[in-house]
Amino acid sequence: MLQETLFAAAAGGTNAANALSQMGFEHMISEMINKPGEFIVSWVVLLTLVIMSAMSWYWTVINVLRSTRLKGQADRVTSAFWETPNAQDAIRLMEEQPKNEPFSKIALDAAQAAAHHQRAEGSGQGMGEALSRSEFVDRALRQAVTRESTNLQGGMTLLATVGATAPFVGLLGTVWGIYGALIRIGATGQASIDAVAGPVGEALIMTALGLFVAIPAVLAYNAFNRANRNTYAKFDTFAHDLHDFFATGSRVR
User: Fold this and answer.
1) Helix H segments across the chain?
2) Rounded to whole angstroms, what are the CA distances from 238 to 66, 167, 233, 252?
3) Are the C-beta atoms of 247 and 134 separated by less than 8 Å?
């Protein structure tokens, strides 16, 4: 009797160990490779999550580099513009900035608008009657700020989409794994752990992968959204000072 009890305990331990081995990521990938026809949904879910993760991390790196660059350039470019004693030298300095530097492009748009209004007014084209110098520069600055603000939105929509949808993509894999477990229970007529360990493990792994993809995307979106708001505020402040400078000839402090 004792021997039978020990044998049953050993068999139970072996079954539990086998069941645990079937719940791992390695076993799931092996099953998906060996039986691709049975795991079409699982393949679609897994590949979708991999693509979403790759794209979100790509835009995360891009936005980190862009935010770091802008943070270093903002004060440097604006200070250089105001510290240059001559307006022509300041404009020339802005023209020497990199093409992807937004503050210099805003300043150049304001300078071009002021110069264009002055030429049109001097040639008698009637622009001075239709729009004052202040209004013309203000409109150019609004367009420049809107353009540069829009450029900062690159990848933000994708990060928000990944953060919102990745858990549901993983949930699809979870539902499919649970469905597979129920099918196996119906086919074998037993609900032992070794019979359903594989599908249940797949369900849990898909849930974890969905969260693994979504959480970094949400954190990155929130961080970049806050950084962009700070940059927008700097755009507005610089644009107001530029408007005063090109409309009145001096910076209002």
Assistant:
1) 2-21, 25-34, 40-83, 87-95, 102-122, 127-130, 133-151, 156-188, 193-248
2) 19, 41, 9, 12
3) yes
Question: What DSSP string runs through 80-127?
Answer: HHHH-SSHHHHHHHHHTS-TT-HHHHHHHHHHHHHHHHHHHHHTT-SH
pLDDT tens for 93-148 read: 988 888 889 999 999 999 888 888 777 765 555 544 456 778 888 899 999 999 99
Environment class of 249 (CB within 10 Å of its CB; exposed 0-12, middle 13-18, buried 19+): exposed
User: b or e along 75-107 (b: 16 or more beta carbons within 10 Å of the residue's beta carbon)?
Assistant: eebbebbeeeeeeeebbebbeebeeebbbbbbb
One-letter identity of residue 89: D
Residue 66 and residue 69: Cα distance in Å, rounded? 5
CA distance 60 to 214: 13
State pTM to two decimals: 0.76
Residue 114 CB contacts under 8 Å (≥ 6 apart), including other chains: 133, 136, 137, 246, 247
Let me know: does 46 contact 173? Beta carbons within 8 Å: yes
